[in-house]
Design a protein that fits this description.
Shape: elongated
Largest sheet: none
Order of helices and strands: HHHHH
Radius of gyration: 16 Å
Number of strands: 0
Structural class: mainly alpha
Strand content: under 5%
Distance between the termini: 25 Å
Number of domains: 1
Length: 135
């Protein structure tokens, strides 16, 4: 089994973990529940780690497809869009560290930004499914 063969297994972790990070954070912000915020933080941390693994395995697997040879326009290229969303989640991680003490009062914009990033992540995943010929 090569690293490229691991990619289809690895890519599901960041999708699930980052989605749950945003949902836990949203629930924690709106319900003012610290435990949910901690769950969101852990999911965000792990989601970003698995996203890095997904980018590495995806770059290796791309040798078979070659779609990243022309990564533009970004909104139509699976790999570019996924990397863009992960950069956005990394920004969300930094933002969270800066406003952590005030998530209950100023976290709504943070939460809605996470929702937008989830939408970008899902659309990029959809493009990946099309690229693989699964639909």
């Amino acid at each position: 089994m090569s690293i490229a063969d691991l990619h289809p297994m690895v890519i599901h972790f960041p999708i699930a973990l980052l989605t749950m990070a945003v949902l836990f954070d949203g629930a924690g912000i709106f319900l003012k529940n610290v435990s949910l915020l901690h769950a969101g933080e852990w999911n965000l941390n792990l989601g970003l780690l698995f996203a890095i693994a997904g980018i590495i395995t995806g770059t290796i697997a791309d040798r078979d497809f070659g779609h990243m040879d022309s990564p533009f326009p970004i909104l139509t290229t699976h790999g570019s869009l996924q990397i863009l969303s992960i950069v956005g989640f990394a920004g969300l991680w930094i933002w969270r560290k800066k406003i952590e003490a005030s998530l209950f009062t100023s976290g709504r914009l943070y939460f809605f930004s996470g929702i937008i990033l989830i939408a970008v992540l899902y659309y990029g995943s959809h493009l990946g499914i099309l690229l693989s010929g699964r639909i």
